Amino acid sequence: MHTDRQNSHTSMQLIGQALGRLLDLLITRGLLWGLAVCFLGTSAFAANTAKTESASASATEVLQASVQKWVAQSRKVKPDQVTLAPIDSRVKVRACNQALNMDVPFSSPETIRVRCAQPVWQQYVRVSVTGTTPDIQAQAKPEAPATVTRPALVAVPAPAPAPEKRWVLVAKVPLQRGMMLNETHVSREQVDTSNMPVNVLEQASEVMHAEVVRDVRPGTPLRSQDIRPTVLVKRGQMVLLSVGQAQGFQISARVEAMQDGRFGEQIKLKNRDSGRELSGRVQGPNQVSGL
Fold first, then answer.
1. 3-state secondary structure string, 190-224?
2. Measured between alpha carbons, how far is 102 from 67 in angstroms, rounded to an integer?
3. Residue-wise over 8-20: b if at least 16 C-beta within 10 A, else e?
4. Does the residue 36 lie in any domain?
5. What's 179's DSSP letter?
6. Is residue 52 domain-resident?
7. Residue 7: phi, psi to the nearest 5?
8. CA distances from 226 to 137, 173, 220, 273 (A)
9. Residue pLDDT tens, the chain, 291 long
10. Which whole-number Å values give the CA distances from 21 to 10, 14, 28, 32, 44, in the listed order?
11. How far apart are CA 272 and CA 171, in angstroms?
12. Domain that holds residue 278
């Protein structure tokens, strides 16, 4: 009887030890599995982030290369003579599924409009084209005969050329960030081009329907990176849609804007009465022309 009790007690101890080892094994495998899941999730997140940043950088490079090539072909210059202004870091360039279309919408040839049909978007890019100056080669003069005595010539320095001037737009009043511009805020003045910054605006029409993105002091030339098109149509607002010629037959209707729009951008519209969706191009505050 006493021997049976000892055997039973020994069996219980063996079973307890086996259960303890099994529990330790399960806990260890569970921790390893959790660490593996955490590591894989972190790696996937880092890969997705790197892929997104790479796609954004690629879209920007494609846009810049396309603009440089188009300007070089249209103005018959070399691509390295075309310089692009830096794109605002707050503007995210999206990839285009079709070939980019480019044109010059304003009087100044320095503003290039880039449009994509799928998905629909447009971007303004400022460019400058540098020219080449041919080298002037001095012609050698024949030496005078040794027997002829000539008076010594005194070198007279050539007068310094007058500084070249250029008509540009300068701030007429203090311009603060977020201010909507018009022709009363700027003036055209002739300034010295020796210290002229790149991408300077020249026509007052270039600041119409634009807003200031940084503070500008009076008398300072305005550059393309100082302004951007302002939002003239906001999503959910009722806007006036005009179809036809202004001097001839024209139809106007009130429709709902389905997205925000800046001057010249194409946006989606909706007729609340019929539920039909339309497209139009922003022409002014709450004004859209039909396509």
1. EEEHHHCCCCECCCHHHHCCEEECCCECCCCECEH
2. 7
3. eeeeeeeeeeeee
4. no
5. P
6. no
7. -65, -40
8. 42, 14, 11, 42
9. 445 555 555 666 666 666 666 656 655 555 444 444 444 444 444 444 444 445 555 888 888 899 899 999 888 889 889 898 888 777 788 889 888 999 988 877 888 989 898 888 888 888 888 874 444 333 444 455 556 566 666 666 666 666 678 888 899 999 999 898 888 899 988 887 777 777 888 888 888 888 999 999 998 888 888 999 889 999 999 999 988 776 667 788 999 999 999 888 999 999 988 889 999 999 888 999 988
10. 17, 11, 11, 17, 35
11. 43
12. 231-290
pTM of the model: 0.38
In terms of residues, how long is the chain?
291
Hey, what amino acid is at 124?
Answer: Y
Place of tokens 């201010």: 179
Residue 235 is assigned to a structural domain of this protein: yes
Tokens of 230: 């302002």
| Cα distance between residue 236 and residue 17, in whole Å | 71
Cα–Cα distance, 99 to 247 (Å, whole number):
35
User: 250 and 223: one domain?
Assistant: no
Task: Indicate whether 76 and 123 sit together in one domain.
Answer: yes
> Rounded to 5 degrees, what are φ and ψ at 2?
-65, -35
The one-letter code for the residue type at 264 is: G
Residue 22 host element (H or E): helix 2-75
Closest CA to 235 of 274, 273, 211, 265: 265
- The token duo for 162 is 């007058």
